[in-house]
Amino acid sequence: MELLSGGDILIRALKDAGVKDVWGYPGGAALHIYDALYRQDDVFHILVRHEQAAVHAADGFSRATGEVGTALVTSGPGATNAITGIATAYMDSIPLVVISGQVPLSKIGQDAFQETDMVGVSRPIVKHSFLVTRTEDIAETIAKAYYIASTGRPGPVVVDIPKDVTDPSYKVPYHWPTETKMRSYQPTDKGHRGQIKRAVKTLIQAKRPVIYTGGGIVIDNASEHLIALAQKLNFPVTNTLMGLGGYPGTDPQYLGMLGMHGTYEANTAMHHADVIFAVGARFDDRVTNDLDKFCPHATIIHIDVDPTSVSKNIEAHIPIVGTCTSVLTEMLAIAEQLAIKPDTEALAEWWQQINQWRADKGIYTESRYEPSLGTCIKPQDVIKMLYKITNGEAIVTSDVGQHQMFAAQYYLFDKPRTWINSGGLGTMGFGLPAAMGAKRAFPDKDVACVTGEGSIQMCIQELSTCTQHNLPVKIINLNNAALGMVRQWQDMNYSSRYSESVYEDSLPDFVKLAEAYGHVGMKITHIDELEEKMRECFAMKDRSVFMDICVDRSEHVYPMQMPGGSMRDLWLNKTERT
Amino acid sequence: MKRIISILLENESGALSRVVGLFSQRGYNIDTLTVAPTDDDTLSRLTLTTQGDDQMAEQIVKQLHKLIDTIKVVDLTVGSHIERELMLVKLKASDADIRAEVKRCVEIFRGTIVDVTASSYTVQLAGDSEKLDAFIEAVRDIGIMEVVRSGVSGIARGDKFLRV
Ligand SMILES: Cc1ncc(C[n+]2csc(CCOP(=O)(O)OP(=O)(O)O)c2C)c(N)n1
Ligand SMILES: [Mg+2]
Fold first, then answer.
1. Are residues B113 and B74 part of one domain?
2. How far is the C-alpha of A144 from the C-alpha of A147, rounded, in Å?
3. CA A91, A491, A481 angle in degrees (round to 5)?
4. Which of these, A345, A444, B16, B106, has the minimum number of CB atoms within 10 Å of its CB?
């Protein structure tokens, strides 16, 4: 049998786990591993400029493809730099394996150079973690890491490998386990049949139903199942920020996003619903608003693969633990067999009501914001233009702030895995590296990073990675010269005292900056040049383009739920409320 | 209400810190915690006690179960169960009257005196936590020098058992 060193075993194991790309950054404790990478051609390494970006890029790759993303960092500062990326993936249930070098076993605990207890530091933000103490254990640990990351409710797994475990002079036989089994980890797949039947009956008898779906639909590739069931029942559907694209954004049954910046129609329908069918969603506080006032009339059916998500914030009347795909498949089959028929009359009335809400104060009615005029470019119009120019077919990543909400509201995502954002942790700096990951996965697709001048500066160094690894992404910078979302809150709650949300003319010239990295920069200050410039931007297939678009600084994101209210208690603009 | 939660855990490095970390991370309190390997030394048995209503207990059990190292979790408080805690108490006991008083108390509580000096008695006592609390109250005026409690261990009554 062939004998391999720990470094070679690790790379071979990654290959056997199906890994093609590793995003990473080298350093002392990882150098044996980096040498092993150098001596082979199966696993490709992409050098980023900051470890946070390595994890975000692996994360973006995973969100775009559904595969496990992989990052590799060194010990100490390399490991701690990765933490924000790991926490981001954890909050959104993204399958990642993050491999960190560690000081040699003999030095652990001695405050050695670049020693950080990575397993300890990452513990609250990982699905699981391993410290590998024997070269013989590397392959099996890697197999387990990918298995755990990708099954059940997915999440990031850290594998911490002390330097002596990858020592080139210590060689052992390589063995890749054909099957991974763990007695302590057996994720649930199928839901309880009796509960599923009850759920179907309740759904069919509903008079004012709403289907409320989250990231679980996207992660579990259950979009088609959802569409089939929703259309069979003719029920309205709303998606969370994480669920966008799970149900087609242009479908007439779609009510738009719900929650803090959700549409009037979605939030109002939720409030009045008699049955809420939650699929792969977790009743996050950015959705429910005040829990005591949440949907007072509704019977709640909740499907989730993670039992801890069920009845955590909102008690489910019909809880079902299982994967979205398997439960929805079963529900469809049962719905076919059952003799009871939906109350078409009540549904027609419900739709009439919903359409009335849409027509009155719906987000897609023309009057919801003042249109752009001259040099006053409305950020909403930029997103609409992006939608037009890319035919709604781009993969859109975003950062965090007002621009993120405008993108979520106005780019109508028809397909899952085309909207990539940090929903749970809300990590500024996520957008650009995530776009690199998505572009790497789909080199022929348009990948746009919708960002703000605040967020983009948190990982702007990755423009250099785009150059080195030929990752032509389009940066759509909604430049409002402020930490806009912070400023919006300061406008609404702090009498416009802009504490540290403005930069006093210190913003860089983004056009020059883009050019310095070898990319194309564009500055747009007038609405009339937007379309042409954006066409130009997307016509340059092989270039990264930074579009610095000066948007209206005073614009707020609406609707916005009122703190302490129910779902339907909304500000609709600066003066109008429900 | 008081909850006694039993966990069968892989006896692996880091496993215990994940359990303990979960409690602080989610804002639950641990009142007592005991842990030791079982007859199968790849497994640890943990018993922990905490306070919480039904909904909270259900969340805790589910969260514990979600940890990858956890094999089984039960809330023993749901069914009938046996709860035991071991306590060692060192008491000031120099004059004869007090020594007699301590002996009487120990007898009533079915404890044993496991160490003696001219000025102290060390008492060992096992039972449920309330019994141990009651003993402490009974001897408080005598003069307690030190109290060591093991924390609760628990097992279900009847034929039910927690095993892989
Ligand atoms: C790493 C990080 N730090 C701070 C915040 C808090 N925060 C949320 S939105 C925001 C402003 C973002 O500004 P910008 O990127 O310019 O977007 P805008 O809201 O102006 O569109 C801040 C500071 C955050 N989400 N992430
Ligand atoms: Mg801004």
1. no
2. 5
3. 75
4. A444
Instruction: Render pLDDT for B107-138 as a digit per residue (tens, 0 to 9).
Output: 999 999 999 999 999 999 999 999 999 999 99
ipTM computed for the complex? 0.93
Q: What is the biggest distance separating any 2 CA atoms in chain A, rounded to whole angstroms? A: 76
Omega prior to A252 cis, within 30 of 0: no
B70 contact residues in A (CB cutoff 8 A): 184
| Distance from C-alpha of B71 to C-alpha of B15, rounded to nearest angstrom | 11
Domain of B67, in residue numbers: 2-79
Say yes or no: B52 and B90 in one domain: no
Query: Are residues B144 and B100 part of one domain?
Result: yes
Which one of B64, B65, B68, B71 would you mutate to disrupt binding with A, by most A Cβ within 10 Å of its Cβ?
B68
Cα angle vertex A324, ends A90, B67, to 5°? 40
Q: A123 and B17 in contact by Cβ < 8 A?
A: yes
Q: Could you tell me how many CB contacts below 8 A there are between chain A and chain B?
A: 37
Judge if B93 and B43 occupy the same domain.
no
- Check pocket membership of A486 for ligand 1, CB cut-off 6 A: yes
| Residue A380 CB–ligand 1 contact under 6 Å | no
Same-domain pairing of B20 and B45: yes
Q: Least CA distance to A157: which residue of chain B?
A: B68
User: Do B68 and B94 belong together in one domain?
Assistant: no
Q: What is the CATH number of the domain that holds B31?
A: 3.30.70.260
Residue nearest atom 20 of ligand 1, based on CA coordinates: A484
Domain for residue B158, yes or no?
no
Nearest to B86 by CA among B126, B113, B115, B114: B126
When divided into structural domains, chain B yields a total of 2
Residues 491-510 of A with CB under 8 A from B: none
Tell me which amino acid residue A121 is: V
C-alpha angle A328/A333/A335, rounded to 5°?
90
**CB A220 less than 6 A from any atom of ligand 1:** no
| This prediction's pTM | 0.97
Closest ligand 1 atom number to CA of residue A458: 1
Residues B129 and B96 in one domain: yes
Q: Do residues B102 and B139 touch, judged by C-beta distance below 8 A?
A: yes
Spell out the domains of chain A, with CATH numbers in brackets: 3-173 (3.40.50.970), 193-361 (3.40.50.1220), 379-557 (3.40.50.970)
Contact B95, B102 (CB under 8 A): no
The pLDDT tens digits for A308-367 are 999 999 999 999 999 999 999 999 999 989 888 889 999 999 999 999 999 999 988 878
